[in-house]
Amino acid sequence: MKEVYFKNLMIADLQNRTARVQLFEKGLNVVTSTDNHMGKSSLLKSLYYTLGAEVDYDSVWDKQSKLYIATLGVGGKEYRVVRLLKRFAVFEGEKLLKITDNVTKELAPLLGGIFDFSVYLPRKDTGKVEMAPPVFTFMPYYIDQDKGWSGLYNSFAAIEQYKSADRIKSLYYHLNIYTKGTVELMAERDRLKERLETLAIESDRLSTILTALREETDNLPPADTVNELEAHLEGPKKRIEQLVTQIGAIRNEIQGLETALHQHQYNLRVITEHVSIKDIVSEDDTYKRHICPNCGYIFDEEIFNLVRVNYGMMNENYMCQQIQLLIDSVSDKLGLAKERYVSLRQQMQEEEAAFQAEKNEFDIYIRQRGLAASVCRFQKQLDEATVEAREVDQYIKKINKELRKLPNRKDVEEKYIECVRLNIMTLGAWDPAYDGTIRLLKPIKAQGTLENKIILAQFVALFQTMEYFKTGATRFSFVVDSPRAKEASTASSKDILKMIVQMKMLPQIILATIDYSEFESEMGAPANVIVLTEKRKLLNSNDFVENQEYIISMAELLKNHH
């Protein structure tokens, strides 16, 4: 098990040319003063801030002008982390390992390798598991004066890129319950559960479509093959074509007969109208007259030619009889033609009806075939969704089986609950309402003066649980700022401080509290006591002058790096 602790911290204000070099020891360190506004909080905030965690400083503290240098003891080696704004330099001894301004992708992996400890979390936006920034490594090791006593593990800023439920699961890494592989499995399980829900919705949609399509196809008559239906259509089509030709011919014949009939009737009428006319015109008349020798009918040249051409007779009575015979004959033919026309039209209607019936059946078949293809396609999609859902469900079960192999999570939870309960009782803050509400991942919330005690009890319980199970996870410095802020009672203050300073399972405790001298003799724990005496003068010009060359060289290194 590796231990990480602070050897010293340098803060340099490059603009005001002031600095602070603060040494720390392994074990208990107490930063104290007799009054507030001495810089205790700024000093403690700067520790994990230097290592890449974001904190909220007091409004009078200018982060932009300051250079931070933390020297760490890690497994017998010494490392330095230098920070200026968003840029970092990491040294092993005097050897420069990296300069970067990318905390998640470069600083986190580098520190993870140095500390032999990393936290992996799924991003809120993509669900992809990644190595989380260093803030999650330090999350259970820092209680901030301003934010840390109003909510458990609430001290750091800029952690919203992960869901709150995932953020607190980082505690499992400190308990050796989670590894990178574990979180990847859980992220994959969450993704698969979402996919399973999507498949269920899709299957319901496809089932609804298939039910509707099958109801429609059930109402359609059975059909032969499309080739047979197309053959059925050919007969009526050809017969209709033949009938159209025949009807056209008979229509032309009727028109010709009607024309001839009208002509014969006209001729007969002309001859009849002139039957009594005699040859009373002399030879020298303008019109040449022709007289019938039998009846004396006078024909002008036009009628004479017409009669001669059409009938070839000169006897008018005989001629009239012949014309009438022709009229009767044409009328008979016309009647027969019209009857034939009517018959053909009736046949045409029957053939068209037969064709339409075949066409309807053909259309139904085509529709049925289209519906059948749709049914087939949707059924295939439903089958694929069902198979995929079955496979996804089986894989989720496999993941759950793997996750159940996690080391004694239930035992860890029970031990943690036991420790929290005892700690709250030790601090005199127990309430029966807390029974059944203590959970590692669901912090207890308290109000008023009890809030600090409840939060501290849970922090300490985590360390006690780690120690009880001898977890191999790397342990860090526990930085606690102003744990007595809400306590008016001297006895309660003493209980709070004792619980902190008497922890032996951590490599280092850095505690900031006012008037520590009043309690020191009763703490029963040796401490490196750091007393701050001047208000708002944490940094001074002497420390800057003594370390000026080094400060400027580090500042130039980070400023000029591209």
List the helices and strands and how they pair.
Layout: E1 4-13, E2 18-23, E3 27-33, H1 40-50, E4 66-74, E5 77-84, E6 87-92, E7 95-100, H2 103-115, E8 120-122, E9 129-131, H3 135-138, E10 142-143, H4 164-168, H5 171-174, H6 180-218, H7 226-273, E11 290-291, E12 298-299, H8 301-310, H9 316-403, H10 409-426, H11 451-468, E13 478-481, H12 490-501, E14 508-514, H13 520-523, E15 528-531, H14 541-546, H15 548-560
Parallel strand pairs: 3-14, 3-15, 10-13, 13-14
Antiparallel strand pairs: 1-2, 1-4, 4-5, 5-6, 6-7, 8-9, 11-12
Helix/strand class: alpha/beta
Helix content: 40-55%
Average pLDDT taken over every residue: 84
Instruction: Give the H and E element order.
Output: EEEHEEEEHEEHEHHHHEEHHHHEHEHEHH
| End-to-end C-alpha gap | 37 Å
What characterizes the major β-sheet? 6 strands, antiparallel
Integer-rounded radius of gyration: 55 Å
Across the major sheet, the strand order is: 2-1-4-5-6-7
Number of alpha- plus pi-helical segments: 15
Low-confidence stretches: 276-287
Roughly what fraction of the amino acids lie in strands? Answer: 5-15%
The number of E-state strands comes to 15
Main attributes?
562 residues, 14% strand, 15 helices, single chain, alpha/beta, 6-stranded antiparallel beta sheet, 5-stranded parallel beta sheet
Outline:
By secondary structure, this protein is α/β, with parallel strands linked by helices.
Please describe what this structure looks like.
This protein is an alpha/beta fold and 562 residues long. The protein has helices at residues 40-50, 103-115, 135-138, 164-168, 171-174, 180-218, 226-273, 301-310, 316-403, 409-426, 451-468, 490-501, 520-523, 541-546, 548-560; strands spanning 4-13, 18-23, 27-33, 66-74, 77-84, 87-92, 95-100, 120-122, 129-131, 142-143, 290-291, 298-299, 478-481, 508-514, 528-531. The strands form four sheets. Strands 2-1-4-5-6-7 form a six-stranded antiparallel sheet, sandwiched between helices. A hairpin with a 6-residue loop joins strand 11 (290-291) and strand 12. Mean pLDDT is 84; it is low at 276-287.
